Amino acid sequence: MLNLALEVGRTQTPEAILFWILGPIAVLCALGMLISAKAVHSALLLAWVMITLAIFYIAQDALFLGIVQVVVYTGAVMMLFLFILMLVGVDSADSLVETIKGQRTTSIVAAVGVGGLLTSLIGRATIGHTEVGLALANVNGNVQGLAEELFTKYVWAFEVVSALLITAALGAMVLAQSQNIKSRTAQRDRSIARFRSGSLAETAGLPSSGVYARHNAVDVPALLPDGSAAPTSISRTLEARGDIIKSDVFELEASEVEEN
Amino acid sequence: MTTSTHLVYLIALPLLSAALLLVLGRIADKWGHLLATLVSATTFVIGALEFFAMQSRTGASRAATQKIFEWISVGAFKVDATLLLDQLSICFVLLITGVGTLIHIYSIAYMSHDHDRRRFFAYLNLFIAAMLLLVLGNSYLNLYVGWEGVGLASYLLIGFWNQKPVYATAAKKAFVANRVGDVGLSLAIMIAFAQFGTVSFDGVKAGAPHASPAALTAIGAMLLLAAAGKSAQFPLQSWLGDAMAGPTPVSALIHAATMVTAGVYLITRSNFIFDASPNARLMVVTVGAITLLFGAIIGTAKDDIKKALAASTMSQIGYMILATGLGPIGYAFAILHLLTHGFFKAGMFLGAGSVMHGMNDEVNMRRYGALAKAMPITAVTFGLGYLAILGVPPFAGFYSKDKIIETAFNSGGTKGILLGGATLLGAAITAFYMTRVIVLTFTGSKRWDDKAHPHESPILMWAPMVVLAVGSVASGFLLSSGSALVNWLQPVVNSQNVVAGEELMKPIVVSGLALGVVLLGVLLAIFKYRTVPTSAPTQVSVFTKAARKDLYQDSFNEAVLMRPGQKLTAGLVLTDYKVIDGIVRTVGWTLGAISTAMRKIQNGFVRSYSLLMLLGVLVLVFTIWLVTL
Amino acid sequence: MDISNYLYLSAILFTIGAVGVTVRRNAIVVFMCVELMLNATNLAFVTFSRIHGNLAGQVASFFTMVVAACEVVVGLAIIVTIFRSRRSASVDDASLLKR
């Protein structure tokens, strides 16, 4: 008895109150989204419309979908919108003057026409004025019922959609890369730049650190022709740390030379 | 009908010779003229042999045919390339080849200084071939091939010296006028085919008695149009005077003896049509009468010797045409006059050429005078021709012309008197202007300066003239003694069928009248041209002015035919440009305008595109909504 | 109350979203309106699932959400890239395809 009353009550007054309060609010918010000059206001109003829809989904026994609506749509998609707005210009306000002649009038007329026709069609449809209700379909729970449908009857669409998701992710990554404004310098360009640099020393290239058989020579500077150390052959960090070893430590003794 | 095997050579030899001379080009310059003359002489010999062979045959086997090949065989329409040599054709064959050969010989000397002499002879041979094809064809279609061929040869020969634009224009004029006539012949062939299912002479002759009078009159009228075009009769006579632009041998051969007589041949050959249609005959005699007077009047005012002779030709052919409209015997008299005319007119043209040759190509008779002493042979031969054309007995013209005048008077009623009167008047005017020519050229005082030294022509030129002069003297008597020609042509034109009675005047009276008016004309001319000014006087009567302008034939043609034709062409071109091209251009312009308008949709704004998508969705939803109504 | 009210609400939200896509110039706001339209359809799906008594509508709604998430990710990345080179996030500026 109670179940029946509850069941009937679902479509009766509580739901009606819910609908008649939230419905017009949703419509007003949508209109507001349409009219507002600032894009951020539009985004927030749309977010509220989505939340309203999520409430409606839950009210209609689409529990999973309602939560997904909040999480994915309101949470992720609308936030993404807000991020992009941040990138593009939060403060920029669109001018509301229409530049294309007749655009506004025609579009309002056309859209109202579509809406009116749809409404009339719905009104005249034979299906849709009484409901069967999802009690039977949700008998094991909404998520389980949905999963059953999704992984048996619609598994092919499921796979395709997952491929689409991957592609979209890749696409976004590709599109969001910053692009080189200058062309990458190739070896030839660098070589030419080196020769044009002015001093022969730079053209010849930086001396590498000295190579000695007895020591790992990263910290031993190379010798210039006059016997002094070349400062550019050693990493500056090592120099700053004082880890340089003088190269004359490794000079061979005369006796050692004769021995060999 | 006998079947012959060598009729084809009559046509093939000159044709091949012409082709050879044209193809070989300059290589043949040295001997081309000799080959051409030889070929022409050979055809005359073949013709003469055929004539003798024909004389030895009798009755229906006199005529000979030769089928060369089957030409057209389409459904019910069959035309073979067959040659027919009967009594009528042989007269023409002998005339064409005989006079043709004489003129070939004449041209060897006359054109000796011309660089393109070989080409001239090639065209002469081409003409001979085409004219022979014309008279030897056994059907209207075969005749038509020859008809066109002589038109082409005439064009090529009139415009032989086409470096001068005037001559080239004259050639075009001749061709176009001929073409108008050719339309008549084409229509006649078409009507004949529609009526009789065949276009051969025998077929049409067989079918003529059963055809409707309207059809026969139509065919006759179209044939008359064709004859008028080819023979320079009214209303297509304007080209003959200008055709004198060609070399004189051309004028002698084509525009005196042969091509212009093709019209007479056509009408005579179609005697079965004209005998069956009195209306057509009436048209024929009218045209003939008008033309003979037309030509005579023009001839009185021409100072150019060749143009005067051309006008004379026009007038004499008018006589022939008139004769062909006078019934069965008229055909025979027309042919008789045709043959005699061939002799004396060709002779006179050759004489004129000789005079021009001696006077350094001067054609204005006002610069001649007293040439008889300098060119005796020319003067004598020309004089004999003159007497022949006047109709002085016993020269050729007497027999032929007086017979025509007689038959004209005898044709009965008012028509007879009118026609007879016209012929007499024509004879008088002929006498006047021919005497004028003689007086201006050969007698009187010399009006040429000492730069010109007239001399007699070389033998190659005066020999043919002598031969033709002999013909002018004797041919009339020979052909009409014992009604020779009348009897000869009987199987073809039924010329012995004379309507009994109906003699208006006795023949001797007619001859007397004729001689009387001729004498009148001669005396008038001698009186008028006692003294001749060297330049044409300007204070003349309106008739003289009109005659000088060819009785305004060119102005008439221009005003009635040419300018309206030009306007029509210009109008059609404008219509084509504005209307037809305009339609096409409008289509293009419309498309351009539409696309310019539609381009505005593509303004590049994404929002407009998305609005269009929304509108599309609206249409879709609306359709669904409609469907569920 | 009539369950179709949810469907009417969905239609209204869809309409508002459609107007927004065609009228607003800021690219991100246009995107948000697209999201609104997608949410409206999700609501319709859920309502239908309740009407028919099976979970197919919810599964469809689930997939729609996933796809919308991917779309947002890639779309916003594109907007950021365009913004980097053009310094402007206005939809009207990308009008190079005009005639």
SS summary, helix count of chain A: 11
- Helix coverage percent of residues of chain A? 55-70%
User: Looking at the chains present, what oligomeric state does this protein adopt?
Assistant: heterotrimer
The fraction of residues in strands of chain C falls at under 5%
Strand residue content of chain A: under 5%
Outline of this structure?
The complex is a heterotrimer of chains A (260), B (629) and C (99). Chain B is mainly alpha-helical.
Description:
The complex is a heterotrimer of chains A (260), B (629) and C (99). Chain A is an all-alpha fold and 260 residues long. Chain A has eleven helices and no strands. In chain B, 72% of the residues lie in helices and 3% in strands. Chain B has 24 helices and three strands. The model of chain B has no long low-confidence stretch (mean pLDDT 89). Chains in contact: A-B, A-C, B-C.
SSE diagram, text form:
The complex is a heterotrimer of chains A (260), B (629) and C (99).
Chain A: H1 2-11, H2 13-35, H3 39-59, H4 63-88, H5 103-124, H6 142-153, H7 155-176, H8 187-195, H9 200-204, H10 236-241, H11 254-259
Chain B: E1 2-3, H1 7-24, H2 32-56, E2 64-74, E3 77-85, H3 87-110, H4 117-136, H5 140-158, H6 165-196, H7 201-207, H8 213-230, H9 239-242, H10 248-257, H11 262-269, H12 271-275, H13 278-299, H14 305-324, H15 328-358, H16 376-390, H17 396-409, H18 413-442, H19 459-480, H20 484-493, H21 507-528, H22 542-548, H23 553-599, H24 606-627
Parallel strand pairs in B: 1-2
Antiparallel strand pairs in B: 2-3
Chain C: H1 4-23, H2 27-52, H3 56-86
Task: Describe the structure using short key phrases.
A: 260 residues; mainly alpha; 11 helices; C: 99 residues
